[in-house]
Model the fold of this input.
Amino acid sequence: MLYLSNFAERLKELMIENDLTASIIADKLRIDKSTISKYLSQERAPSIENAVKLANIFDCTLDFMLGLVDENIKKDFKHCPQFSERLQFLFINKRKTKYALKKQTNISQSLLYYWLHDIYSPSVDNVIKLSDFFNCSFDYVLGRVDY
Done:
């Protein structure tokens, strides 16, 4: 998982640039400081929810935080809609089918069902697969940006 090392490196850089400690960030996210330490040491990937919160703290794109792009372009970020709504929107507006998603990404029908019914949120790995499948940014998949 290359994105995990990129994420850890970017998180370290952003913490230094913004003069924030793991304790301060943990307090803002309302999580244990050890979780931030695990992100920094690449022992754990953030949940989508925590990744979005971190990107909001640093006013940056998730694509930048994950190392998918090298430049952090400031944007007006929106509140993320329910993932099930956003995924349905993507299928319709990108003119893609669930069958094509399964074939091209190996994402199972059961996992897709869970996302479409808000039973589970996707992992960072799976959102990266979705952004590749829909040919758009990570932030667009989540609905943080309109383009």
About this structure: The first helix runs from residue 2 to 17. The CA atoms of residues 25 and 93 lie 36 Å apart. The radius of gyration is 15 Å.
